[in-house]
From TrEMBL, chains A, B:
One of its GO terms (cellular component) is plasma membrane. It is found in: Endosome membrane; Membrane. PANTHER family: CHLORIDE CHANNEL PROTEIN, H(+)_CL(-) EXCHANGE TRANSPORTER 4. The gene is CLCN4. The keyword Glycosyltransferase does not apply. It is a multi-pass membrane protein. The chain crosses the membrane at residues 62-86, 147-169, 189-209, 221-237, 249-273, 322-344, 365-383, 434-455, 462-481, 509-534. It comes from the Eukaryota. The lineage of its organism: Eukaryota, Metazoa, Chordata, Craniata, Vertebrata. It comes from Merluccius polli. SUPFAM superfamilies: CBS-domain pair, Clc chloride channel. Keywords: Antiport, ATP-binding, CBS domain, Chloride, Endosome, Ion transport, Membrane, Nucleotide-binding, Repeat, Transmembrane, Transmembrane helix, Transport. This is Chloride channel protein. Belongs to the chloride channel (TC 2.A.49) family.
Length: 754, 754
């Protein structure tokens, strides 16, 4: 653990790569922490020397806050730009603004300001494609032309998106959250959070969302924010050179990402804490909150939705809910849980099929086919034709008196003279019936198409499609309950809470509860889900329905499998992720897990004073272990330390090149003072400085649950196993993960990295 | 770690106390966790046997939620009852309701409903003492009589409070948060969360707050909620028999306590996470949230404030803030930080004086003297006469058009015809000037008296007095800024953001910012503080000022000393609390900290097969260590395990009593199979079952920062130190804490418990 620090003391600039990690390897949290403390100690002691050093040390102390500020500013800006671009390009599929082609439908109609509120959808400046090309806006021909243009744009956007991803940044695909979870848990994937990924992901995200595919921008925004975080890390050596500190920044960046995705800073911090982060010290909590707030305020000052709200679907309800309504809310929770479980199973088996069969070889074709199918099926239905966030926004909203939506086509009683906020329950008109049918079709469509969409080679988030499924189901249930309450005032169960002429049921609330339930079922978020929804409604009032649905949904979904969609994708990809939430309850001991097994050759060890340089080189060549224990002698097997393969290779190589007299027969010494050697023996090689003198050990009798706990909490890469002071074997993170997979009747070979 | 589990297997009911802890001792988190896993495993395997066992296992799985529900219900109810009682008894100091003596002033005037809103303070049913006794409500005589009655009631209440605490439950005094932090970090203080403490703390809290002392009920409410949590733990063996699981429940209970104290469920959860909890798994987060919500809704259904709000000082502001206002906000932050630092120093040195001098011997007298002084000085000033929460509520509130308070005595322009919400800045009238003077006096009074009040032998919270200090300062600053902006419209800095006739400055917001700053300075809360305040205002709008003040206040206060008031009191009491936030950055190694030191006698160890029962008994008698390492032999010093003193004592005692043939010369075996002994040798005593075969070890070269990290994250009691497989020494939690104290130039002897 203090290998790196010792090294720094003895040599000025010894091996530039010492203490770094290879790609697709796990970091050692304790070592990173130790290195940061060394750095800090050095700066502190230097700061007493001169004013300049003091200023430098203050700057260093402040750099964390600066990084947070920059992350907040950039991710807020990017989110705003993405929102505006998506808005414009989604509308481009329908038509174009004559006064300025870069205006979206809504902006176009705002600027041509003659129209009143009611018919703002019909403004002369905005022309659908058919109207623009043929001059006719009505009729079958115009419909077909608009249909064609819609599909064409969708194909174009999706083709562009998948091509850009494939050519420039393959890591830009997917939601990114599974990988970010893995990275935050201490894994290295170089380039995953790089500048190219940031750029390409931002662009292709816009294209993918605009193409009308059943995907959202919320998950990828977390990835984008983390890329920003990584980008700004490189400005400060404190973060760029320490993988542990870097991950603190990334945790905060994830919070900023969710903050701008949902306009929920507190929810974002809790999401980062609950869902993605691994090591989350309190300092990070505070900084995450700062980054999330800056991001939210940046986004608000860009004001992409023109309503000074952070999200499209901010809502305010006016009527309370009643105890009896908990029954439909819980039913929605059950639905959400079932949908979550079904979705995860279906999506994972489809992704596995893609990975293993010929299907995976044509990702571009796959995206184009799915996009084409989506566009073809989506256009005829007004609820799927528009963007999914708009759909959710409409479903969440309560029907006001001025609402022109088909969903609000209720039959008004003639003597309505109440204030706008308090409209009593009314019977549904024909528009509502049509809307219900269309919504039902939209539900089936979304459920099926999302399964095939998530996991394709384009940026794709899952929050919005899940919420859409839940919101549709919720709204249908809500209208059903409302009509039941209206038509059956005399039923005992209804009589108690709903007088005739009162506004009892808020279908929009049902939509929101349904959305929470489905999102919960898919992701298994709990507190952060409820807090995000709470920040959308802004009232404690509705927390209980949301919570009831979230709890039910989680329980129902958990009954079919403990993993959420992100964990499932981590497993699918074989990343070495040690979930904090998995409880290991088996009775195995460290001795059952450690290598070497009984049938295997003995552990590859080095002795402290009896190994020649050529033996070391042979060991490095013949094995691919990440490190070697060093013992007093092969007989006593008493452990004195652990040396990393990477450090050992570098040290031997450097010594061979630069240190005179080091030959193949030179003896490698890990002891403090090599003995006096005969004059004719070759120059010894002293390597104590790269030896970690405090390797982590457990006894062979240690229960595996304790070992798992230690790996999790201390973020170890490996741990040595001893019995009464003798070295018996080694347990690596991969061994732990494979053992856990085996215990859960999964394929241990699915864990691929170390 | 698996000693306990082994024991369970071999003997049915061997030593009833095995695996429990003595009072004022530290628990072993790993062992507790291991025991819970064993329990869980047993239940799971049994649940497959019969339907009845399956139901039992389901009940067991649900018990966590049941406990949370009960905690929420009880702590919400208690908070409501306390609020109502405090309300009534505070008013009792002034007068009594003729129609029903159990009505508070407000309730009394509500029920006598003839009065209009404006003069609701003057209702015939409510009589001040002077009026009741002499019939006169005006004049110097009446004033003096009222004054006397006020002081008399204060003395009576405080005398009752201190007597009840001293006679029935000494643990009921103070805020309880330092002790709860220590308990949650794994310390045992029996009775601290007991039934008596719950009862007495609830009653005396009402008395103490009603007596008018400068203290609040918020901190003690956390203690009360934790007592509820402990009470309900005893219903389920899952929690009552496992100190680790019990602490999960207590963490959630703390969240419920803050939730009802401030009406802020999310803030409560974050408070528990940030401030009091030590081990906070994600499962606990979700359950805490549930408990906090149930508590909040229970309190709301009791509705103690008659406004369907959870707290007296819920506010809604109508005007935004401007960038330039950040300057006074940050100044308030500086004030808060200074006040926090000053308060902590002064209070700690006063408490230390109380502890070490004759003063501590007369706690009852002290309370009565302080209460008398407080009442004497408080009565003449209307801002200190009323209860502190009412004061804060008034300071937070913006001046509406209907406001009759002196603070809102602005000079209205004659042509005022605006809506109520949007009153422009106006010049201050004479009432405001008088109010400012009185507020300044109140500020000085509160600052001084709070230092002497916190730490007396009565329940006393610190949140309300701190917030009051900040709110007074903030309101004064706010009015100052408002008047400056009104009178100097032409100043460049003001011209930019404040047109004449506009409502630019909200003095109530300044009060809130000041309150946050002072609370932050004293407690060093960060995220939870901002979230609690956010939940009080209910708008993202005002988070930036609050955050700016909180950050400034923390930085300023930290410059004078890192510890908040709770940590300082923990230190004062010498509790073994290993703060998660302290960064250990010194270069010491495990070898520097371990016992025995070089000059000391060697470590007391047992050998695995060569110690006689009498030697063991002698060892137990002569030393007071909490446990003994077991080695292969004294020569090789190779460690095989660790045995707890308590278990060893019990095992030897039980064997002596119940096992035939065990005599003083019997050999104690810790090996798996004792060798075949000659026929005439005494019966051996096999103790492998109480041996912990997986003691935690580190090498002597391990940096102390890593050791501290391990102790913190794994919750160890002790850790053995080895070098190349040989046992060298032991490090206990106490050693770690003493070493940390020494490194920070504090008295290591102040850490008193192990």
């Amino acid at each position: 653990m203090n290998g790196a620090s010792h090294l720094m003391d003895f040599l000025d600039e010894p091996f530039p790569d010492v203490g770094t990690y290879e790609d697709f390897h796990t970091i050692d949290w304790l070592r990173e922490k130790s290195r940061d403390t060394d750095r800090h100690r050095k700066i502190t002691s230097k700061s007493k020397e001169s004013i300049w050093e003091l200023i430098k040390s203050l700057l260093d102390a402040w750099s964390g806050w600066v990084v947070m500020l920059l992350i907040g500013l950039l991710s807020g800006t990017l989110a705003g730009v993405i929102d505006l671009a998506v808005d414009w390009m989604t509308d481009l599929k329908e038509g174009v603004c004559l006064s300025a082609f870069w205006y979206s439908h809504e902006q176009c109609c705002w600027t041509s300001n003659e129209t009143t509120f009611d018919d703002r959808d019909k403004c002369p400046q905005w022309q659908k494609w058919a109207e623009l090309m043929t001059g006719h806006s009505e009729g079958a021909g115009a419909y077909v032309l608009n249909y064609l243009m819609y599909v064409m744009w969708a194909l174009l956007f999706s083709f562009l998106a998948v091509s850009l991803v494939r050519v420039f940044a393959p890591y830009a695909c997917g939601s990114g959250i599974p990988e970010i979870k893995t990275i935050l848990s201490g894994f290295i994937i170089r380039g995953y959070l790089g500048k190219w990924t940031l750029l390409i992901k931002t662009v292709t995200l816009v294209l993918a969302v605009s193409s009308g595919l059943s995907l959202g921008k919320e998950g990828p925004l977390v990835h984008v924010a983390c890329c920003c975080g990584n980008l700004f890390c490189s400005l400060f050596s404190k973060y760029s050179k320490n993988e542990g500190k870097r991950r603190e920044v990334l945790s905060a960046a994830a919070a900023a990402g969710v903050s701008v995705a949902f306009g929920a800073p507190i929810g974002g911090v809790l999401f980062s804490l609950e869902e993605v982060s691994y090591y989350f010290p309190l300092k990070t909590l505070w900084r995450s909150f700062f980054a999330a707030l800056v991001a939210a305020f940046t986004l608000r000052s860009i004001n992409p939705f023109g309503n000074s709200r952070l999200v499209l679907f901010y809502v305010e309800y006016h009527t309370p809910w009643y105890m009896a309504e908990l029954v439909p809310f819980i039913l929605l929770g059950v639905f959400g849980g079932l949908w979550g479980a079904l979705f995860i199973r279906a999506n994972i088996s489809w992704c596995r099929r893609r990975k293993t069969t010929v299907l995976g070889r044509y990702p571009t074709l796959e995206v184009i086919v799915v996009a084409g199918l989506t566009a073809l099926l989506a256009f005829p239905n007004p609820y799927t034709r528009r963007s999914t966030s708009e759909l959710i926004s409409e479903l969440f909203n309560d029907c006001g008196a001025l609402e022109s939506s088909q969903l609000c086509d209720y039959i008004n009683s003639p003597n309505m003279s109440r204030p706008v906020d308090d409209i009593p329950d009314r019977p549904a008109g024909p528009g509502v019936r049509i809307a219900l049918l269309q919504l039902a079709l939209a539900l089936v469509f979304k459920v099926v198409i999302t399964i095939f969409t998530f996991g394709m080679k384009i940026p794709s988030g899952l929050f919005i499609p899940s919420m859409a499924v839940g919101a549709i189901a919720g709204r249908i249930v809500g209208i059903g309950v409302e009509q039941m309450a209206y038509h059956h005032h005399d039923w005992i169960i209804i009589k108690n809470w709903c007088r005739p002429g009162a506004d009892c049921v808020t279908p929009g609330l049902y939509a929101m509860v349904g959305a929470a339930a489905c999102l919960g079922g898919v992701t298994r978020m709990t507190v952060s889900l409820v807090v995000i929804m709470f920040e959308l409604t802004g009232g404690l009032e509705y927390i209980v329905p949301l919570m009831a649905a979230a709890v039910t949904s989680k329980w129902v979904a958990d009954a079919f499998g403990k993993e959420g969609i992100y964990e499932s994708h981590i497993q699918l990809n074989g990343y070495p992720y040690l979930d904090v939430r998995d409880e290991f309850t088996h009775r195995t001991l460290a001795a059952d897990v450690m290598r070497p097994r009984r049938s295997e050759p003995p552990l590859a060890v080095l002795t402290q004073d009896a190994t020649a340089v050529e033996d070391v080189e042979a060991l490095i060549k013949e094995t691919d272990y990440n490190g070697f224990p060093v013992v007093v002698s092969r007989q006593s097997e008493r452990l004195i330390g652990f040396v990393q393969r990477r450090d050992l290779t570098l040290a031997v190589k450097t010594a061979r090149q630069k240190q005179d007299g080091v030959v193949s027969s030179s003896v490698v010494y890990f002891t403090e003072d090599p003995p006096q050697l005969p004059a004719d023996s070759p120059q010894p090689l002293k390597l104590r400085r790269i030896l970690n003198l405090s390797p982590f050990t457990v006894t062979d009798h240690t229960p595996m649950e304790t070992v798992v706990d230690i790996f999790r909490k201390l973020g170890l890469r490996q741990c040595l196993v001893t019995r009464s002071g003798r070295l018996l074997g080694i347990i690596t993170k991969k061994d732990v993960l494979r053992h856990m997979a085996q215990m859960m009747n999964q394929d241990p070979e699915s864990i691929m990295f170390n």
